[in-house]
Design goal:
14 strands; globular; Aspartate Aminotransferase, domain 2; alpha/beta; 444 residues; three-stranded antiparallel β-sheet; 11 helices; Aspartate Aminotransferase, domain 1
Length: 444
Amino acid sequence: MRYLPHTDDDVAQMLDVIGATSLEDLFASIPGACRRKEALDLPEAMTEWELNKHMGKLAAEMAVCPEYLVFMGAGSYDHYIPEAVKQLLGRSEFYTSYTPYQPEVSQGTLQAIYEYQTLTTRLLGLDVANASMYDGASGLAEALLMAIRITRRKKVYVSCLCHPLYRQVVRTYFEPTGYDVVELPYLDDGRTDFSGITDLDACAGIAIQSPNFFGCIEDIETLAEKIHTDPKAMLIVSFTEPLTYGLLKSPGSLGADIACGEGQSLGIPRSFGGPGLGMFAAKKEYLRNMPGRLVGQTKDLDGKRGFVLTLSTREQHIRREKATSNICSNQGLCATAAAMYMAALGGTGIRELALLNHDKAAYLKGALKKAGLETPFEAPFFNEFVVRLPGGLQETYNRLLSEKIVAGLPLASFYPELEDCYLLCATETMDREDMDLLVKEVAS
């Protein structure tokens, strides 16, 4: 089956118009040392049906719900998605819409984004939210750069309990800049140690994650009081599980200047790791330093409500040196899904769901402790926690995997000192029988 629509005659005519004799002429400007001379070592082509069968076999190698019991969160969480969200999101006017380059004729898209921004500010307790970032990791890196722009300082602190992959993105962003990124260690209770912060007058911002990577809830309010003894230093609160703020106080209400993180839990399936949704909110005074774009509400000449692209600060819209970000697209469809999800549940529904998530994880943690397993961190937590498996941990983990149970995320690759520890998660999708089975298998 051909996928290229141009015939040899079509190609020859196009080459003649531009004065080229062959397709090779199109690549003449590329140095020979940068060009591959031998053919790619590719397998034989498959038919459409053979390819479908091959992809099915690859997919079957993945341990996913509901065939497997997956007690793993670590930034991507299994939640039920209301059928109403799935059906509405599949409508063509939502499903195919893209960044509104001509905002005045994209009222539906702009309104969807506006509603998302409104619900995001309510959830995070801050004044303004942008039209979304790529994901939680890019949101954290952009928040740190924003703090540097605002304070004109070149040093930031980042908790080592921010998601390890988020911190890697921060390092990638900051490596060529010359700015100083200092990682803060953690305490025995599983929360960040802030005792090493002694030079607030040189600090642009301090970033923590709550709940942090161990699932523990950080003391945001106390840290905010400490940071804001310096009038410039900014507190950035990152998150991977936004449902937390259905139960706990929002970052903004506790003193955060910027809140950013991953919105996948809000009506977006895990999908083997993506796509995600970068949520980003800040105090109103920092509006013009925010990355991305922001939709606002106005009235037209007839007094009817309308929506406009109020702020768009990337290099395609304004002078390059004035741009606050080079992020080229918001996650429009994912943001719309999150807006639908938050609207469908409402404040009461989100609170009830958050409480259910906490209670499920608390039950699992309590049952594991009764079975004799150690939980090394005892700070308050939300829906995930760290457990230390008994001797022969890798054998136990592999045995459970063969029984279609994923017993959490091994932490050794991220925190070598926790080589025998696993990060477990339980959401509303886990039945009591599922959790009891895990406890029985781990303790046996």
